[in-house]
Amino acid sequence: MNLTSIQSVVQVTWPWRDPIAVSLTTGRSGGHKRRAVIQAVIMAAVATLMTMVWHKIWLGLAIYSLSAVVIISGFLIPTLFRALERVGQWLGRMVGIGITWLMLMPFFYLCFAPARLILKLMGKDPMHRRFERNRSSYWVDHKPPSTPQPYTRQY
User: Fold this and answer.
1) What is the dihedral of CA 130, 131, 133, 139, to 10 degrees?
2) Which pTM value belongs to this model?
3) Fewer CB near the terminus (10 Å): N or C of the chain?
């Protein structure tokens, strides 16, 4: 199989870079209606949880209202729906950045840095990263398994 035939297979099976090809493979050009319904249903479910389980009536009503705006714009005003999607994508990106910097970074420095300092003070190097000039090889010898059974469990 040559490179051009592989590229043509990839273009047919998974054309994720080409929006026209994606719409042709899905069979519809108006995918925004389907996305609007999915988003509105999920928002309505979240709003129902807010009102019924956590008793946040005003927040639930606000999410219901936003759900109605999404479904109406998805079917009647596609440009507004696309703008709302862009705002949602931007908001999701900002939440991801916030979670990364506000939660994951302190977790890293509060957990992994002290653990590394403790290992260093104890003189342990579990990854064997110490450079030794007099070694001819850094290969770690392992005892081969006695039966071929471990080779059948690759993962």
Assistant:
1) 80
2) 0.56
3) C
